[in-house]
Amino acid sequence: MTSAVRRTMVWRCGLTVAALLAFCTAARAGGQITFGDTTNTSANDGPPFFGFVRDGDGAAVGDARVTATVKSGGALVTTSNGIGVYKISGFAKSIHPDDIAISCAKDGYKEANVVRRPSSPGDTTDPIEVDCYLQKE
Amino acid sequence: MTRARGAVAVIAFLLGCIAAAPACAPALTGSVGSAEEGAMEGVLVSAQRTGSPITVAVVSGEHGRFRFPAGRLSPGQYSLRIRAVGYELDGPQTVTLGAAPADIAIKLRPTADLAGQLTNAEWLMSMPGTAQQKRPLMECMSCHTLERIVRSHYTAAQFIPVLARMAQYANNTIQARVQTRVAPQKVNDEAVAKLAAYLATINLSGGPRWNYKLQTLPRPRGRATHVVITEYDLPRKTIAPHDVRTDAAGNVWYSDFVENVLGELDPKTGAERDYPISILKPKFPTGSLDLEADADGNLWLALMFQAGLARFDLKTKTFRVYPVDAALNDDAMQQSMVMPRADHVDGEVWTNDVARHAIMRLDLKTGKYRRIDPFAFLGGGHAHAPYGMAVDAKNNLYFMDFGDENVVRVDAKTGAATVFPTPTKGSRPRRTMLDARGHLWFAEFAANKLAMFDTKAESFKEWEAPTPYTYPYDVFCDRNGELWSAGMASDRVLRFDPQSGRSVEYLLPRPANIRRVFVDNSTNPVTFWAGNNHSAAIIRLEPLDE
């Protein structure tokens, strides 16, 4: 099993859990009654992003701010978990993944390097792994 | 510092009493008890003078004693009311107050209709079912209590057309006035069928009694009894006070979710005055939601299905109405929010377009609206809904994504959006306020949490509401850093200190459907204000301790 396939399987398992959680979310949409109708289609989604935030020794950095910035404007900011992992759901399909830049930050650190793992050519759903390295100031 | 301020207040009060001794004697004191419990703590005793719109309530303390503060009850005949779950008033039903103070003994007897006393939160605690099954009931509370559902006799099949019909009602519907949407609302048949099947398991379709035990929350104790609550009845049952706030002169203003008026209340006399707003779309639901003040203290209203915004000049007492441009103004157009706080920066006011899950900017010079899709760069897997709004000093917008789980910042100059998902998934953040430190306080409606987003550090903190199924609608951070919150479910006002984690919940004298909350920081201690959206009343809550 290649690492790309393994990565995809792990991510899809995560997506399944996320979809189940989202299904638990009931009515929404600004006070409009939907009686539990949730739209959770990913048909319009581009590939999700995930990765690790690590320090110079390779140790996980939790609670780091991870920002995905869209070249044409807009950004999504999330936080790495206790083992340094972050996940960002898909952006709009119309946005090319190369037009999304990942950066990370945490007080007491500065960004040292961002490594984007190669993704399967032509596969628009394969999760994109981008790891971010921080260095203590 | 807080203690010192409290001590100063007590000393000032006592000095005032010495100077005017007769005025400081409480007009009404007494005890509350029952054969079952003896002296009872935590019973709300309400007194309303005949013909007056004002009802004052206090709570009995540890030994069942209660005391209305001096100056709150003038001579006259008063009807009495109590709230203590499981009990009803045996007597006396009325009391006549004269020049001399009165002391009465109130007797309670067990109620024969406990179900009629349960809050929405208590129904949710009582009814069987999974969190997933109960979750859609959060929406029902917008228009009616859950008691209405559980007392019904509909089977699952009979529920389906009822739910489909209600989906076509505007969200600014109350029992006293149902309003129907002009643009039809799509309904997911599968979701409706699933909900109908569940509702038929918790109502009386299977027999004359509920097949589950009714659970109740405890009565107030200790600090939760140190409070005075004043209710102001409004002149018509069709008034639905949604957002309430005070102005610099101490007058109380409210948006009316159902009628097309801005309301003003004199808190000293209870006198109410309406300021009618022009009808922009005659066949559409009326009423406004968000009520905000601009930097000059003038008031702005979001006109819901009337489609637009209105600015009310406090000096001239006149409106300037900004209808949504014809090109954008279709049958689904709806503005629930307005944020004018920093319109002096760039001459623009923020609002939302509920139907398109978008935000809009009103150019005050041209009166034109511009729509911005803040989620355009995100995928389609989530239903978004811009809701509660706040702005910083540069008129950058922060809004709550009530449909999902995000706090979103929109740059005033570029319109670029930055999305910050809350730590709790599916939190459905609702209303918000931004304090001077750059802390954005907000209620996580579906997560039953209060939360803070630090706009400088870009980090979150969350606190669970102490009572399950509170579903907080809004939160206000007062001058002491304490949080005040309430909602549509528990009939309680939550006061929470995020530093210590200490909380107190004040039970309200009547069933209460609360939306926006407001704290007047100019009083000592602070004063909490809210509208009782389903009962045509304004609520003032005065804690007796700082």
Task: Explain this structure.
The complex is a heterodimer of chains A (137) and B (546). By secondary structure, chain A is an alpha+beta fold. Chain A has a single domain, classed as Immunoglobulin-like (Sandwich). Helix content of chain A is 16%, strand content 32%. Chain A contains one helix and seven strands. Chain A has a four-stranded mixed beta sheet with strand order 4-1-7-6, with no helix packed on it. A three-stranded antiparallel beta sheet of chain A has the order 3-2-5, with no helix packed on it. The N terminus of chain A is likely disordered. Chain B has nine helices and 37 strands. In chain B, a hairpin with a 4-residue loop joins β3 and β4. Chain B is globular. The N terminus of chain B is likely disordered. Chains A and B meet through α1, β2 and β3 of A and α8 and β26 of B.
Extended strand count of chain B: 37
Question: Helices and strands of chain B: which structural class?
Answer: mainly beta
**Could you give the order of the helices and strands of chain A?**
HEEEEEEE
- Estimated radius of gyration of chain B: 24 Å
Into which percent range does the helicity of residues of chain B fall?
Answer: 10-25%
Low-confidence stretches of chain B: 1-22
**Could you say how many structural domains of chain B there are in total?**
3
The CATH topology label of chain A is: Immunoglobulin-like
CATH architecture of chain A: Sandwich
Radius of gyration of chain A: 16 Å
Order of strands across the widest beta sheet of chain B? 8-6-3-4-10-37-36-35
Ranges of chain A where pLDDT stays below 50 over 5 or more residues in a row are 1-32, 36-41
How much helicity do the residues of chain A have? 10-25%
- What's the arrangement of strands in the largest beta sheet of chain A? 4-1-7-6
Shape by Cα distribution of chain A: elongated
Number of helices of chain A: 1
Quaternary: heterodimer
Distance between the termini of chain B: 10 Å
Structural class of chain A: alpha+beta
The CATH topology annotation of the largest domain in chain B reads as Methylamine Dehydrogenase, Chain H
Report the top-level CATH class of the largest domain in chain B. Mainly Beta
